[in-house]
Design brief:
Length: about 850
């Protein structure tokens, strides 16, 4: 056998990877290489391009599972994954490989991480050494509590950290130690929103009766009252220790006096575990080496703490331990010389044009760069050699990956020049069975879609060539029942998913309303325990004050809370406004300085119309009825009765009028999710009304662009209300057992000129409303399966008019459950609109 004819033992035709390695071994030019045929099942070299580092890791995870399934002799320690910057990929590695079910878990280890950038303890020590330069932002200070050694030192349990974060946010702490610290940072002296002010609020709340008794213009923060007072005291001690340490760092010192600084820091803030003791031993060793090197150089001048801290950080940053390599797991590491020893599978991620080979910049005074000589080191050539090492070390498979498309606009981004050179070389030596030869970059490439739940990832390719270049996913949780494909149960990634039926016997009104405000979110929460829109465990702490108007979410929250807490008070006495302004100022909610006056005047003007509208129902001629508890029997889809229970809002009855009024309000626009709440309560009131009681109307006030809008729901008969409540119950039964298509928000605010409503009405005109399936009280008795095939014009109208609307809608629950929306889904949405939404707008009058 000739030296260039290396083949795999027992194989007649070598694969692409072995062929390239053989040609390099023989140092043969492409023109002298024997003709090579690229087989359909040849996956020895794969080039993946996706949208982000996260998608790179997700596709790699599925590809490694595929390698392991197809090669029973492949072990985890036979796999090496290299990246140019391991610190950049570390969180994505943990997110993908560290959060998988035990059945398909892949054990892994990371090497070559920078200590300061990856280990929270090292990062924390550097932060504390530079604390006197910090702005004391709420988020920065709170992050220190997440270090177990610090929280344990101050006797704060891990379960109490979430409580402290909510206190920091609720008490109004933003940044700064106190007014003097704010002034030293260049701001005007003001204690509000500082840690000193927030701690006083917490401690005052621990000993106060209620928040209506301020002390020296400081309003108590009542959540710290009672048993929580002990936690408030611990937090105050923690802040005092930080302030004292910060003050101690201001004075410059001689090197000999800095020798024990790290020991002092350790004793003040840390309680050691076995792991932290080892880390601090390394920290002390590096610290003493730094101090001793300065003393040996006979440096006698004063040094600022920041200077020595920067030098210490540089030393730690250069300390890259090589532990966790070859630990019997999948090895993640950076590209380093001699790192690519033979592995059966080698993957290289992050091969982007600007990242690898790394660009080399030189200073103008760099004489070596300006006058290069043969043998000078060149980082570009070094990176090329590392790539060659990886290519030669891969025994079975070489997997290359780069970001080929922008995640924002889908524009094409270029790979590393090394990938282009590799594919150009393959083009010169290969042949395929097709006459029209596609470029090697196309034949070897794998393109993964933007989303991990894309339908294309769960369709098994039929052709061998497609199997080699088409990615597929093993994550069965993304498979939903709406995929209309025949799945092969032998493959885990093709296992069809069905949702269990949920039977109910009793339903609360609040649960029914919550469902119709967001059916998809309710379904995901019920079946997957997912909540797309809130994060109550660890709130995101604001770090800056608001000097102008609040952002939209904070502004809405302030408006709703302000009206909820003070509407009745302001209706009875308009003179409360100055007192309320002082009260909200003491809470640290209002903007500071002159912005406070401007903001408060805007709020007065905004709420005055609403206050006047509500005030008329507090006149002596109105009688407020007591809230009622109801029990309404409704018929379910299974011909069983379901009890609808709950408490109804109070009614205002005019002594001289035959009607009673139920009043709702919102400080924002009257959106569907708010109107549907008022409408369902209106139906319940009408069903619960006795024959001798007055008829009931419901009014919903909202504020749109500073104007008060009045939405009226007129009185309807008990039978009509019962009929519509039955329909809402049937929709609820269906919607908790299978996802229903739904736009999250009201149509007017998202689609200009009521476009969606006009389209839906136009489609409904083409459907025979008198058809038996549409007139039954069970809306989920769907129309015949051949209805759309017999009405091709209607099917075209659905796809042309409604598909673009849903494709542009970025609801995470919608994307999660409806990766592909079919004509049948769109027809169901039209039914949803007909049964659940249109009655609201038909019953509604707006003033």
């Amino acid at each position: 056998m000739k030296s260039g004819d290396l083949t795999v033992s027992g194989e007649q035709k070598p694969k692409l990877l072995k062929t390239i390695q053989a040609e390099i071994f023989a140092l043969r030019a492409p023109s002298d290489t024997p003709v090579f045929t690229l087989l359909d099942n040849d996956n020895s070299i794969l080039i993946h391009h996706g949208y982000s580092p996260l998608r790179e890791l997700e596709t790699l995870y599925d590809q490694l599972l595929d390698f392991l399934n197809n090669d029973q002799n492949l072990e985890l320690n036979d796999i090496l994954v290299m990246v140019p910057q391991i610190d950049l990929y570390e969180p994505f590695i943990h997110a993908v490989f560290g959060n998988t079910p035990a059945a398909r878990s892949l054990k892994y280890s990371l090497s070559d991480q920078h200590l300061v950038k990856t280990d929270p303890l090292y990062t924390c020590v550097i932060k504390l050494l530079n604390l006197n330069q910090a702005e004391f932002k709420a988020e920065q200070i709170a992050s220190l509590l997440h270090i177990p050694e610090i929280s344990t030192n101050f006797d704060i349990d891990p379960d109490q950290i979430a409580t402290l974060l909510s206190w920091i946010e609720g008490s109004g702490i933003r940044f700064g130690r106190d007014s003097k610290h704010i002034q030293s940072l260049g701001g005007a002296a003001n204690d509000i929103n500082t840690f000193s002010w927030g701690i006083k609020r917490m401690l005052l709340g621990a000993v106060s009766i209620d928040e209506q008794h301020p002390f020296e213009e400081i309003t108590p923060f009542m959540p710290t009252r009672g048993i929580s007072a002990q936690l408030a005291g611990k937090f105050a001690m923690f802040i005092d220790a930080l302030c004292a340490w910060s003050d101690s760092l201001n004075e410059p010192r001689y090197l000999v006096d800095l020798s024990n600084l790290l020991s002092t820091l350790e004793s003040c803030f840390f309680t050691h575990s076995d792991d932290s003791q080892k880390k601090f031993k390394q920290l002390h060793q590096s610290w003493q080496e730094l101090i001793q090197s300065g003393l040996k150089s006979n440096y006698q001048s004063l040094l600022s703490i920041q200077t020595i801290a920067k030098l210490f950080e540089d030393i730690l940053d250069k300390n890259i331990p090589s532990q966790n390599f070859l630990m019997g797991k999948i090895n993640f590491c950076t590209l380093m010389p001699m790192r690519a020893i033979p592995f059966k599978v080698i993957a290289i991620l992050g091969l982007n044009q600007n990242d690898f080979p790394k660009a080399t910049t030189h200073d103008s005074f760099d004489l070596i760069a300006n006058n290069p000589r043969y043998g000078d080191r060149n980082s570009n050539i070094d990176d090329r050699y590392l790539f060659l090492e990886a290519l030669l070390s891969a025994q079975n498979n070489l997997y290359l990956s780069f970001i080929g498309h922008s995640i924002t606009d889908n524009s094409t981004t270029l790979p590393s020049v090394l990938i282009d050179e590799l594919t150009d070389y393959v083009d010169k030596i290969r042949r395929t069975k097709e006459l029209d030869l596609p470029a090697s970059k196309q034949c070897l490439s794998i393109h993964s879609p933007l989303m991990p739940f894309s339908e294309s990832l769960f369709i098994e390719p039929k052709l061998p060539f497609e199997l080699r270049k088409t990615p597929h996913s093993y994550r069965a949780q993304w498979i939903t029942a709406n995929y209309k494909h025949d799945y092969d149960d032998d493959h885990a990634y093709n296992a069809a998913f069905s949702y269990p039926k949920i039977l109910i016997e009793k339903l609360n009104i609040d649960g029914l309303i919550k469902f119709y405000k967001d059916p998809l979110g309710f379904f995901c929460n019920k079946h997957y325990s997912l909540n797309f829109y809130t994060n109550i465990d660890f709130p995101i702490l604001p770090s800056v004050e608001s000097f102008g108007d609040l952002n939209n979410l904070d502004n809405y929250s302030f408006n709703e809370n302000f009206i909820q807490d003070n509407l009745d008070k302001l209706v009875q006495n308009q003179d409360e406004k100055p007192l309320l302004q002082a009260y909200y100022k003491s809470l640290g909610i209002l903007p500071k300085f002159d912005y406070e006056t401007i903001y408060w005047k805007e709020k007065q003007a905004l709420f005055q119309d609403l206050i006047d509208a509500i005030a008329q129902y507090s006149a002596p001629e109105y009688i407020k009825q007591a809230p009622k508890n109801i029990l309404i029997k409704l018929e379910s889809n299974q011909q069983q009765q379901i009890s609808l229970t709950g408490s109804l809002p109070v009614l205002q009855q005019h002594v001289a009028a035959p009607t009673a009024t139920c009043i709702f309000w919102s400080s924002a626009k009257g959106k569907l999710k708010r109107l549907i709440s008022a409408y369902i309560y209106h139906l319940c009131h009408c069903v619960n009304r006795a024959k001798n009681e007055p008829s009931i109307t419901t009014i919903h006030y909202s504020i749109n662009s500073g104007k008060l809008i009045k939405h009226n729901f007129s009185a309807i008969t008990q039978a009509e209300a019962k009929y519509q409540l039955d329909i809402y119950l049937h929709g609820f039964e269906y919607g908790i057992s299978a996802p229903i298509l739904w736009l999250r928000d009201d149509f007017e605010s998202n689609i200009k000129e009521d476009k969606v409503m006009k389209i839906l009405d136009e489609i409904l005109e083409q459907i025979n409303i008198d058809h038996p399936e549409f007139t039954q009280t069970k809306p989920w008795d769907l129309i015949p399966a051949n209805f759309l095939s017999a009405n091709s014009s209607l099917a075209n109208l659905l796809e042309e008019q409604l598909c673009p609307i849903f494709e542009d809608y970025s609801d995470p629950a919608l994307l999660r459950l409806f990766a592909q929306i079919t004509s049948d889904d769109l027809l169901k949405f039209v039914l949803n609109y007909h049964w659940f939404i249109k009655p609201i707008y038909n019953a509604l009058t707006i003033e």
